[in-house]
Amino acid sequence: MVPAPATATALIGSGVVRHRRLRPASHAFAYGTYFLMLPMRTLRAVPVPALRRNRFGLLSFHDRDHGDGRDDALGWLDALLQAEGVTDADGEVWLHTYPRVLGYVFKPVSFWYCQRRDGTLAAIVVEVNNTFGERHCYLLAGPEVGYGRELRARKVFHVSPFCAIEGGYRFRFMRTADRTVARIDHDDATGPLLQTSVSGHLAPLDARSVRAAFFGMPLMTLGVIVRIHWHALQLWRKRTPFFRKPAPPQAFTSR
To answer: Which end of the chain is less packed: N or C, by CB atoms within 10 Å?
Structure first.
């Protein structure tokens, strides 16, 4: 997979989120969704009128929903990369994330694609939130990072009460000018356990595309949290083993 084009235009994606549990009881779902794909360095210099940033709107983006909650999410990311010794992420930073919808959002996962100046990937930060208000970041960095490649990280953060903190994740990311795919598979000691992906077609973020997304799914982000609890009930009814929430990892970032 070749790197995404360098044109730094704020985008909105429309697609599908899929999830499949393989055992001990099979459970799967697929839902329509939409998301933002934001060129954060460009937006710092040239705001997009259609993006309601840090204020209320049909769809909006708030910096404090990311990282350590500061008013400048890109500043947080740059500080994280510097602290972790990633010195070549000096190109565009694309953030794949859910918007707030009518001021509400729950972001199970966001992806920060940190590029070099030539458009290749220097690092990816996978930012995970759980329903207990906790957040953790998995930093994928090094020469092996790239679109279409399988990347791995050890699981250290509690997400679901139906999964123990063991095993690891396998990530794969793909991007073209008009499409993106992010896949996360979770393996435990027995083998593959969960298969999750979000994919979508990308279009320019403007007033028209914002209205189309909102009126097509006006309660999209509320639906995210409702469905999380609904499927948790389904897993409980299937007698899936339950794991109590442990303390979060001491380090905010793992790599």
So the answer is: N
